[in-house]
Specification:
It comes from Kwoniella dendrophila CBS 6074. The protein has about 500 residues and is of the alpha/beta class. The protein is about 40% helix and about 15% strand. The strands form four sheets. A seven-stranded mixed sheet has the order 10-13-14-9-8-15-16, sandwiched between helices. It has a six-stranded mixed sheet with strand order 5-4-3-6-7-17, with helices on both faces. β6 (about 200-205), α9 and β7 form a beta-alpha-beta unit. α4 (about 70-100) packs parallel to α6. The structure holds nicotinamide-adenine-dinucleotide. Nicotinamide-adenine-dinucleotide binds next to α8 and α9.
Length: about 500
C-alpha cells in the first residue's frame, strides 16, 4: 500500500484547514519575536535538518521507495546528499551572508560619508510548495534557504508522495523548532487556503499550469514568488560531436538502472525531471541531419548495453531498484506517444514495458520539424518520461531557431567537439542553465543559481541565491545632524540656494 503503516512510515493524514489557520498564526508569532533571526537559531535549525536526514536515512529510503519506487542509492544521490551539501555550505557561510554589505565603493563622493550599505533582513514567514518527483530535496533545499535567511517556513508537500510527506510531517517538529517550521499535507484545497494568505515569500516547484495559479494568488496579497517550473529541455548534437560519449552521458542521466557500473549518478528515474540538485532531464534532441542516422544507431547500441533486454537479469524490468512511472495516466501518455510514432513509422527504438510495475524503458522517435502538432503532443508537451524525440536539423542555426521559437527551457545541452559551437548557442538562446557535453550537472553545483526563465520559471535559489531569495535587501543610509551644512543646500526657498551654508 502506498499509505500503509508498515515499515515505520506513519499514516498519511491531510492537514485540516483549522490546523492551517493555527500554524499560520504560530509561525507569524514566532517571526514577530525576532528569535528566528539570530545566527544561533539559524545554525541550530540547519544542523538539526542534517540530523533529521542522517538519523532517519533508512526510513526516508523506505518512504521514497513506497512513493515512487526509487532505490536507496538513487535516493541518496538525487534527493538526500544534495540537501546535505546545501546545509554544509549554508552552515559555513550563513554568518557572512547575513552581514551588512558596505556600498561605499561605487557611491558618489557625497554619499560615501553616509555609510551606504545593504542590511539583510528575513522577508517573513515563507511558503514552500513542492512536488513529488524529488520529494525531499525539492522541499528541503528551499527550506535551507529560508532557515539561512531567518524565515520561518511552511512546507506544503505533494499529495503524490504521501509516504515522504507523512514521514516529514512526523520528523520536522521533532528536529526543528516546531513553532518556526511546519509541514502541511493535502492537495488543492489546502494549497488554496495557504495561497489566500500573505507571506514573506512563496517558492513553488511544479508544473507551469499550477505555477500560474500560484502567481495569480500571490498577486492578490502582493507576495513575491519564485517559480521553479518545467518544460522541454533540448539537446543539440553538432556534426563534430562524439556520438558515443553523447549517448552514454545522455542515457546515463535520462534513465539509470540499479547497476552502479554505469557511472550511475542516479537510478531509474523516468521521473528525472528538472529537479533542483541533480538532474534536469534532456527532453528531445536536435541533431545535425548528416549525423542523425548514425546517432540513432549509437543510441540504440548504448541503450542495449546499458539496459540489456529481458530475459537478461539486467533488464529494467527486473533490476530491483528500477523505478516506475508515477501512475497509469503517465504510463498511458508514454504509450500513446509510442503508438503514434509506430503508426507513423517513426519509432526507432522501443523500451521494454511491464504494465504491472509501470516500468518502461527508453523509446526513441525519429521525427522531423514538420511533425509539430502530430504525434499526440510529443513535440509540444513536456514529456517527463522515457520517450525521446530525435529531430534532424540542417545546421546549428536551425537548431537555435527552433529553440528560440518555443518557451525558454530550464536546461539546455550542447554536445559538440568544439567549444565555439557551445559559445554560439548559449549566446543566441535563453535557458535556465546550459551545459557543454554533459547533462544535469549544473544543478549539482551548489553555488550556481538554479532557476528558469520565462515559462521554465522565475527567480532562482540554491546556495547564496537561496539565502537571497528569502532575504530583503534593505538600503540603509545614515545622515547625522553634523551634515546639516550640506543638507541645508536643498532647503526651500531655493532662491536661497547656496546662501544658507
Ligand atoms: P504536483 O502535482 O505535486 O503539484 C505541485 C504542487 O502544487 C503540490 O504541492 C500540489 O498540492 C499543488 N497543487 C496542485 N494543483 C493545485 C491547484 N490547482 N492549486 C493549488 N495548488 C495545487 O506536481 P506536478 O505539477 O505533477 O509536478 C511535475 C512538474 O513539476 C513537471 O512539470 C516538472 O517539470 C516540474 N518540476 C520542476 C522542478 C524544478 O525545479 N524546476 C522540479 C521538479 C518538478
Amino acid at each position: 500500500s502506498r499509505m500503509g503503516n508498515e515499515n515505520g512510515i506513519p499514516e498519511y493524514k491531510v492537514t485540516s484547514l483549522q490546523e492551517i489557520e493555527k500554524l499560520y498564526e504560530t509561525l507569524n508569532n514566532r517571526f514577530s519575536t525576532g528569535s528566528t533571526e539570530s545566527l544561533a537559531y539559524r545554525l541550530y535549525n540547519l544542523k538539526q535538518l542534517a540530523y533529521l536526514i542522517k538519523d532517519n536515512e533508512k526510513r526516508i529510503h523506505q518512504a521514497v521507495y513506497q512513493d515512487i519506487g526509487k532505490g536507496a542509492y538513487d535516493c541518496n544521490l538525487s534527493d538526500l546528499w544534495p540537501i546535505i551539501n546545501e546545509i554544509d555550505l549554508a552552515v559555513r557561510r550563513v554568518e557572512s551572508w547575513m552581514k551588512d554589505e558596505s556600498k561605499i565603493w561605487d557611491a558618489m563622493l557625497s554619499y560615501k560619508t553616509m555609510r551606504p550599505r545593504v542590511k539583510k533582513q528575513p522577508k517573513g514567514v515563507a511558503l514552500i510548495i513542492s512536488t513529488w518527483n524529488y520529494p525531499w530535496q525539492l522541499t528541503l533545499i528551499p527550506l535551507v534557504g529560508a532557515i539561512s535567511a531567518g524565515c520561518p517556513a511552511v512546507l506544503k508537500v505533494s499529495e503524490h508522495a504521501p509516504s515522504s510527506s507523512a514521514l516529514l510531517a512526523e520528523l520536522l517538529p521533532r528536529y526543528l523548532d516546531p513553532e518556526g517550521y511546519s509541514v502541511v499535507t493535502g492537495a488543492v484545497d489546502e494549497t488554496t487556503r495557504l495561497l489566500e494568505k500573505p507571506w514573506g515569500h512563496i517558492l513553488y516547484t511544479g508544473a507551469g499550469g499550477v505555477g500560474k495559479i500560484v502567481a495569480a494568488a500571490a498577486a492578490k496579497t502582493l507576495t513575491p514568488t519564485t517559480l521553479e517550473l518545467g518544460g522541454k529541455s533540448p539537446v543539440i548534437v553538432s556534426s563534430c560531436a562524439n556520438l558515443k560519449i553523447t549517448a552514454r552521458r545522455m542515457f546515463s542521466i535520462k534513465q539509470m538502472t540499479a547497476d552502479m557500473r554505469y557511472v550511475s549518478l542516479a537510478q531509474p528515474t523516468h521521473e528525472i525531471c528538472l529537479c533542483q540538485s541533480l538532474l534536469v532531464a534532456p527532453d528531445y534532441v536536435l541533431v545535425i541531419k548528416d549525423k542523425a542516422d548514425e546517432f540513432i544507431k549509437v543510441c540504440r547500441e548504448t541503450l542495449d548495453t546499458f539496459f540489456p533486454p529481458s530475459p537478461s537479469p539486467e533488464s529494467i524490468l527486473y533490476t530491483p531498484q528500477s523505478s516506475s512511472l508515477r501512475n497509469t495516466g503517465d504510463l498511458d501518455r508514454m504509450l500513446s506517444y509510442i503508438e503514434e510514432a509506430e503508426q507513423g513509422g517513426k519509432l526507432v527504438h522501443r523500451g521494454e514495458l511491464d504494465r504491472n510495475s509501470r516500468r518502461l524503458g527508453i523509446s526513441l522517435v525519429k521525427t522531423n520539424l514538420n511533425a509539430i502538432g502530430e504525434g499526440g503532443g510529443l513535440l509540444e508537451q513536456e514529456v517527463f518520461g522515457p520517450v525521446m524525440a530525435i529531430i534532424p536539423v540542417d545546421d546549428i542555426d536551425a537548431a537555435i531557431k527552433y529553440i528560440n521559437n518555443r518557451p525558454h527551457p530550464l536546461a539546455l545541452y550542447v554536445c559538440s567537439g568544439k567549444r565555439s559551437v557551445f559559445e554560439k548557442v548559449i549566446n543566441e538562446t535563453r535557458s535556465g542553465s546550459a551545459t557543454w557535453n554533459d547533462f544535469g550537472l549544473a544543478t549539482l553545483a551548489r553555488n550556481l543559481p538554479f532557476g528558469g526563465i520565462g515559462a521554465s520559471g522565475w527567480g532562482s535559489h540554491h546556495g547564496k541565491d537561496g539565502f537571497d531569495t528569502f532575504t530583503h535587501h534593505k538600503a540603509v543610509l545614515e545622515i547625522p545632524y553634523i551634515f546639516e551644512p550640506l543638507m541645508a543646500l536643498r532647503y526651500p526657498p531655493l532662491t536661497n540656494f547656496g546662501k544658507r551654508v
